Amino acid sequence: MMLVANKTRKGDCMMFNSLAEKEISFKELEKKVFKHVCELGCEITKMILETYDDELAKQRERKSYRDKGKRKTNIKTVYGTVEYSRRIYGTITPDGEKAYVYLLDEAMQMDKIGMISKNLAEKIVMAVTETPYRVTAETISSTCGQSISAAGVWNVIQRLGEKISEEEKHAVKQMNADQSEGKREIPVLFEEMDGVWLNMQDKKHKKTKKQEMKVFTMYEGWDEEKEKQKRSTLVGKHMLAGMEESSEFHQKREACIRKKYNADEIGQRILNGDGGSWIKDEYDPDVIFQLDRYHIYQEILRKITDKKAQTDIRQLFEEEKMEEMLKYIQIYATSVESPDEKDNRSNKAMKLYKYLANNKEGLLPYDKRGIEISAPPKGMVYKGLGVQENQNCTVITLRMKHRRMRWSKSGANNLAKALYRRENRELIETIDRYTDGLVFTMQMQEIIETISAAKAPKKDGKGNRYIDLMNGNVPIRDAVQTESRKIFKKVFC
Predict the structure, then answer these.
(1) Eight-state DSSP code of residue 131
(2) What is the H or E stretch that residue 197 is in?
(3) Most CB within 10 Å of its CB: which of 20, 26, 221, 338?
(4) 277 band by pLDDT with thresholds 50, 70 and 90
(5) What whole-number distance in Å separates Cα of residue 452 and Cα of residue 227?
(6) b or e along 333-355 (b: 16 or more beta carbons within 10 Å of the residue's beta carbon)?
């Protein structure tokens, strides 16, 4: 493609002059346009921030905030790193101590997860919940005007994960002080818990012993209309995940429930789990426990190698003949006893027996025990539990297992917080709370006018090219004014 500029007007974009009489592919053109637009965005943002800092300086209480000069800093945005200067002030704290503050930073609430814009933070975090840190860094660097490393992506997730953990701890404090926010009353709350075993590493990136991530899912039932369409959809689903010790995790789980519901008025709570002591021992004895069917079948396959015995045990279980099933496993274990130390069939069979016998009260699902529970609310149905394994897979396993991944305990915990918040559709809201909070008190029109009226700094005797662009013949400003263009002009011109 050949771009030829027959005529140029004063104020036209310098980029097009550089392209005149030069062959260039559309791909290269696109890159050049993108680069210049990003540079322009950085320059405009710099001017806006510094103009706003000037306004804060004028409006401040001078006796309380003494101007100590300017300091350079930067903020990472989707169109690049914006470098700017802002004033530092000396002040006295309520305790009578000397302190130094940046009024602009306070207005922007930059004490959150770092000098990073909300838009960029959203892109980074949403990407990293799907892909590894290195891939996320490459994606961001290739699609935004911002260059970021894998370590930079990792730092964002750590800061965000830590903030989410602080929110969870605050919810526990509220619960313990009987100040939980939950008001909703429901007839039944279904709860499921399981663990996901992750490969771990130490500070030197050496492989260490696996550790279990705890995952919790609660919901109110199933959508009746979706069930008619053969699409199983949970109502009121909410998740929690983390690497905490069991006692701490259960406190957070209970706080999570009480943040949403009036727990004292929940008619019945039904728990589905794999029988691990860390799951059911922490629950109120009034909670109905049932052993997860997936784990029952899994243990039968793992502990019984004989295909006929596998089939017989499964058939007895499905026919709800629990006593006969346990007796059958005992007889089988006795029948395969062997003096050969390498033959562990009998030991494995007895482990299966103990696993099922220790969870005997939970072998029958809740709806097969004659337990009366309230009828489901309109538009909702109740049915058998067993969704946790699928939740583990889609929310945690696909991102954090396989592909030779290894984690530190804190690294795994912080990513898990982002993953479950995404599944709860709370991630964007969470990011919003911990990125820039700048709300301009000046209208954008006033800011642009202030910038345009300012004396343009000189650069190689040619003035400031970005000011020239704003004051010169800008295509969208000078073109026939459609409604969309009028809106753009009203906001930015």
Answers:
(1) S
(2) strand 188-201
(3) 221
(4) confident
(5) 61
(6) beebeeeeeeeebeebbbbbbeb
Of 15, 8, 14, 11, the C-alpha closest to 32 is: 15
**Separation of CA 474 from chain center:** 40
Cα(32)–Cα(19) distance, rounded to whole angstroms?
10
Q: Render pLDDT for 23-37 as a digit per residue (tens, 0 to 9).
A: 778 888 888 889 899
Q: At what angle do helices 307-318 and 322-335 cross, to 10 degrees?
A: 160
- Give the type of residue at 101: V
Burial label, 373 (beta-carbon count in 10 A; 0-12, 13-18, 19+):
middle
- Separation in Å, CA 168 to CA 92, 196, 462: 33, 20, 56
C-beta atoms surrounding 298 within 10 Å: 13
CA 71 → CA 39, 65, 339, distances in Å?
22, 16, 80
Two tokens at 272? 């589905």
Cα distances from 374 to residues 219, 271, 279, 387, in angstroms, run 15, 16, 25, 21
Q: Supply the DSSP string of 355-398, one letter for each residue.
A: HHHHTGGGSS-GGGTT---PPPPTTEE------HHHHIIIIIIH
Amino acid at 420: Y
- pLDDT of residue 172 exceeding 90: yes
What's the rounded Cα separation, in Å, for the pair 81 and 146?
Answer: 6
DSSP 155-179: HHHHHHHHHHHHHHHHHHHHHHTT-
DSSP lists the bridge partners of residue 192 as: 217, 272
Interatomic CA distance for residues 421 and 424, integer angstroms:
5
Task: Note whether 80 and 119 are within 8 A (CB).
Answer: no
The DSSP letter of residue 265 is: G
The residue whose two tokens read 């490393």 is 149
Label the pairing between strands 22-23 and 2-3.
antiparallel
Inform me whether the pLDDT recorded for 462 exceeds 60: no
Nearest to residue 268, comparing CAs of 248, 284, 288? 288
Residue-wise pLDDT for 104-135, tens only, equals: 888 876 655 567 888 899 999 999 999 999 99
Amino acid at 296: I
In this prediction, residue 439 carries a pLDDT of: 52
For 217-255, what is each residue's pLDDT tens digit? 999 999 999 999 999 999 999 999 999 999 999 999 999
Which residues pair with residue 381 across a beta bridge? 222
At residue 327, φ and ψ (nearest 5 deg) are -65, -40
